[in-house]
Amino acid sequence: MIQRLKHIDFIDRLLPAYAALMFLFLFVPIVVVIVFSFNAGRHVTQFEGLSLTWYAQAWTDPFILAALRNSLEISLASATIAAILGTAAAIGVTGLRPRAQRAVEMLTYVAVIIPAIVLGISLLLAFVTFADWLNPWLAYLWPGEDPPEFGLGKLSVIAGESVFGIALVMILVRTRLSQMDASLHNASADLYATPFRTLIQVTLPQLSSAIVGGFLLAFTFAFDDFIIAFFTRGQSQTLPILLFSSIRRGVSPAINAIASVLVLVAVVMLLLALFVLTRRSGRRRFSQPRTEPFDAALDRTGP
After folding, report:
1. pTM of the full structure
2. How confident is the model at residue 297, as a pLDDT?
3. What residues contact 154, with CB distance under 8 A and at least 6 apart?
4. pLDDT given at position 251
5. Which CATH architecture has domain 37-301?
6. Residue 183 contacts by C-beta under 8 Å, 6 or more apart in sequence?
7. What is the mean pLDDT of the chain?
8. Domains of the chain by residue range
9. Looking only at Cα atoms, what is the longest distance across the chain?
């Protein structure tokens, strides 16, 4: 018995050390990249002093600025689409039968956990097939001589990034919906509010933290994504793809500067999302649902 207790105590001491080693393995390379982005020298393996030279060089490069603009436009557009469609889908699923709801939830989780390379190849094949079907119709129906042509580019990247973002927003909003107080909707119905007014004045304010958090997370994943953008980009260039192309020509401190900015953007957006998602849950934990306005109105209306 004593020997067994000693063995358990040894494991309890070993697990924190193992966790610390895992965190070091994950974060030490990132810290090294950030430190060497301030290197005054030209060699990435020799630190010769602190300087912002490589940041100035990286962020005055027209190719880097163009890739940054593309990344921001793609991230904002895909996150906005994900927030709107994901919220609408999550609310719409609540009207389905329980079995259908479980099926939709399963498909939503599949879209999140599926390997990114599989999703990227699937989206590439879908866009190419759709373009081969659509472009002849556009050429036939277009009144002018130069009909528009659908192909891989910024729009296809936005659509591809939106697929993952929609699933992410749906999961967050569905979780928030399951925690909502049903008496609020019942009170709104008793006051003869239309479904649209209930949606605007009751449901969406309660879901605001989940929607904003989903938007921020979708923006973060789209901004840092490489695989989906690589398969669906066409001639468009995003910042992660530019970073990958630059590494193939050799590592320089300017690449460390770009990577450091990517890490900073990801950390800031994730912290914002965490703050938004936990602020509402913290308020709900220490306060009761605010149904007083509905109760007062019901008292005025009488039986």
Report:
1. 0.77
2. 40
3. 70, 73, 74, 233, 236
4. 67
5. Orthogonal Bundle (1.10)
6. 289, 291, 294
7. 80
8. 37-301
9. 88
